[in-house]
């Protein structure tokens, strides 16, 4: 019985702290939230070149960990790095100064915490478009007004969604984003 309980406890521990790979589309103009995940020790960040230009992924001096892809060219090329130390890691592209981000490494996070911390809604307030970015794939989203009525929804299959919100009445809305079994709702303001 002790062995059985030990195996169950080990399985639960592994499931709770499952390591995750975060994907970042790496191209000219990517910076800020789309390039700045919060991860836990042992998680991997994978940058994928989504244009044909030369880029690098290079840690800045003072980052907790040093990493450098070197300058690489080719759409679909990838560079991955597994983070093993707590701290902040600012980085950028040696070729394009406007391509920057920060990888923040924290203590153990649940998969749900990773999803919520990697989810960004901008601008908020929005008037014409609302962008949703997640480092975990977005399966779908729904927008509800304050009365709970569904006013917009879509099935998605990427990390980035743009919602055309100009036709919505000004006010407060709730946007629910789904990724696999994960779901998070946040309040946004439409002007």
Write the layout of secondary structure elements.
Layout: H1 2-16, E1 21-26, E2 38-40, E3 44-49, E4 58-59, E5 78-82, E6 87-92, E7 100-106, H2 111-117, E8 120-122, E9 129-145, E10 150-164, E11 171-179, E12 182-190
Parallel strand pairs: 1-3, 2-7
Antiparallel strand pairs: 3-5, 4-6, 6-7, 8-9, 9-10, 9-11, 11-12
InterPro entries: BlueCu_1, Cupredoxin, ET_Amicyanin, Secre_tail
Pfam family, one: Copper-bind
Keywords: Copper, Metal-binding, Signal
Summarize model confidence as the mean pLDDT.
89
Strand proportion: over 45%
Unreliable residue stretches: 1-17
Number of distinct helices: 2
Q: Label the structural class.
A: mainly beta
CATH level-two architecture of the largest domain: Sandwich
N-end to C-end Cα span? 61 Å
Question: What is the total tally of β strands?
Answer: 12
Major pleated sheet: 5 strands, antiparallel
Shape: globular
> Helix-strand pattern, N to C?
HEEEEEEEHEEEEE
Radius of gyration over all CA atoms, rounded: 19 Å
As a percent range, the share of helical residues equals: 10-25%
> What's the CATH H-level homologous superfamily of the largest domain?
Cupredoxins -  blue copper proteins
Quote the CATH topology of the largest domain: Immunoglobulin-like
Describe the structure.
- This protein has 191 residues and is mostly beta strands.
- Strand 11 (171-179) and strand 12 (182-190) form a beta hairpin.
- Helices cover 12% and strands 46% of the residues.
- The strands form three sheets. Strands 8, 9, 10, 11 and 12 form a five-stranded antiparallel β-sheet that branches.
- It starts with a helix and ends with a strand.
- It has helices at 2-16, 111-117; strands spanning 21-26, 38-40, 44-49, 58-59, 78-82, 87-92, 100-106, 120-122, 129-145, 150-164, 171-179, 182-190.
- The chain folds into two domains: 20-108, Sandwich (Immunoglobulin-like); 113-190, Immunoglobulin-like.
- 26% of the residues are buried.
């Amino acid at each position: 019985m002790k062995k059985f309980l030990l195996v169950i406890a080990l399985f639960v521990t592994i499931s709770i702290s499952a390591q995750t790979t975060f994907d970042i589309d790496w191209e000219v103009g990517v910076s800020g939230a789309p390039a700045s995940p919060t991860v836990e020790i042992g998680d991997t960040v994978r940058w994928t070149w989504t244009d044909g230009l030369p880029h690098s992924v290079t840690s800045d001096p003072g980052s907790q960990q040093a990493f450098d892809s070197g300058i690489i060219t080719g759409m679909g090329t990838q560079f991955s790095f597994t983070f093993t130390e707590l701290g902040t890691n600012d980085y950028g592209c040696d070729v394009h100064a406007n391509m920057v981000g920060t990888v923040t490494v924290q203590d153990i996070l649940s998969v749900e915490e990773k999803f919520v911390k990697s989810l960004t809604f901008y601008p908020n307030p929005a008037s014409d478009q609302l962008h949703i970015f997640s480092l975990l794939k977005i399966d779908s989203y729904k927008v509800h007004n304050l009365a709970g009525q569904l006013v917009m929804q879509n099935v998605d299959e990427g990390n980035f969604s743009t919602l055309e919100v100009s036709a919505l009445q000004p006010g407060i809305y709730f946007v629910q984003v789904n990724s696999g079994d994960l779901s998070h709702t946040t309040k946004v303001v439409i002007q």
